[in-house]
Fold:
Amino acid sequence: MYRYHFVTKDHSYYDNTSLLLHQTFCPSYGCHPFEETFELYSVSGSRFENKVKLDWPNIKIAPAYLGQARYDSGFRLLDSGSVHGTLYLVCAPNRNFILWNPSTKESKLIPPSPFDSGPNWYLFVDHRGFGYDSIRDDYKVICHGKVSKRNYYGEVNKEVDSYLWEIYSVRRNCWRKLDVGVHNKHKSCEREQLYIDGLSHWMCYGETRYYERYMLSFDWSNEIFLTTPIPPVSNINGCFEYFLGMIQLVLLNGSIAFIISYIETGTFHISILGELGVKESWTKIFIVGPFPCLECPIGAGKKGDMLFIKKDGELAWIDLNTQIIEDSGVITERSLCKIAIHKENLLPFGGKSI
Structure:
């Protein structure tokens, strides 16, 4: 009864929302990032029968390297949903980041940080996020970088000298360093974030043991970090060190959830979070499968249904209550897919439009 109520209740997060299907196409297995192309669709219907391709923002970006100018390859979507209608995009070859509202067509190229690489140091950015500060009515971008010194010849030393958090304000159009105390240490986190109610969340890995995982959260209004431990995960033999599968965060009917995918058996365990910072508040509510035909989940819909990619490359929906699989008819040959929730917003997000 609890599971049924959880996935069928209406949540205000999904009011005036639509599903977006983001596809990354690779011409060959293991292709170079410069060869990837990206497409974005607004989709509806159980078999994606209503599928409208969206035009990317018309932003001309200088090539990262001579001869590598690609203006028509599209952008990579970094979030599992929009932030007040705005999407966070990256031009993969150039590492330029763009804010874009598909409803208003407004877009903004994020300027480079003054703390980026200089003559005596090099900053390698390994983690980024995007969110909304409701107190100041401001959109912000945060990034984490590893700082290394350059030698006399301008070469970058392999050893990391320090770590740096910096934050960008769209309203002020400026970067500044962010003092976050203990979180100045490097955290190995997933690239894509989960955003809801003014906080962004990432799945991260322990500093000493890779199989130790936790959720790192950032409060955009108060500019503070919080951590929530993830319960230990074992493989089918009960061994924590050699877990064969994947763990990912999703937004399931307005709640933060993590999915453990056991690839070999096609079994998926889904737990939801009751309270930030409390490890014991994770509650396992679904065990899906075993379905040997399924490979991995690529997102959740609006009513407790999840989209999976099958081992033959087709996308399929699963009703978590009934565990009935319905094929979508979409084949993903040589492509990577994800779905995102987009909430329409016709208000400008600030800053100068391009």
User: Anything to note?
Assistant: The chain is about 0% helix and 45% strand. Helices lie at 2-8.
